[in-house]
Amino acid sequence: MIDEKVIFESKELVENSGIVMVGTNGEDGYPNIKSMMRLKYDGLKKFWLSTNTSTKRVELLKKDNKTCLYFVDENKFAGLMLVGTIEILQDRESKEMLWSEGCDVYYPLGIDDPDYTVLCFTAEWGNYYRHLKNVTFKIEDTYNVVIENM
Predict the structure, then answer these.
(1) pTM as predicted
(2) Residue pLDDT, tens place only, 42-60
(3) 123 lies in which domain range?
(4) How confident is the model at residue 83 (pLDDT cuts 50, 70, 90)?
(5) How many domains does the chain have?
(6) Which region, left, alpha or beta, applies to residue 5 given φ > 0 means left and ψ of -120 to 50 means alpha?
(7) How far apart are CA 6 and CA 126, in angstroms?
(8) N or C: which end of the chain has fewer CB within 10 A?
């Protein structure tokens, strides 16, 4: 049985985090970390991020799409790691979903800029740390958790 409080606190941590750390596997076998803005998400399962197509990160993801996302609340000394895979999306619908005022600073050719890429992360499992303990859970087990105001 999954701890409903862990799921509630994990979702709260995601909601309150504007930045997410994205971990990928480097070509040299060493891990790579990059901070990105948390743009759109669906529970603990799906996350959409944007980046430049020309980045080293996109090239790494083409070769190995296994990744993790890490969220942290330094005030509560809490952290959430989600492990899964990233899909590289270039379709207009995905780009429109994330496009907002100010994006043209990064993508000067607009929504159809070939250097504009959407990354869709799908989590398989998570690990939540708080209260001096780690709790590991499968994402599929979180679907049936009904969370009321805790």
Answers:
(1) 0.91
(2) 999 999 999 999 999 999 9
(3) 4-148
(4) very high
(5) 1
(6) alpha
(7) 11
(8) N
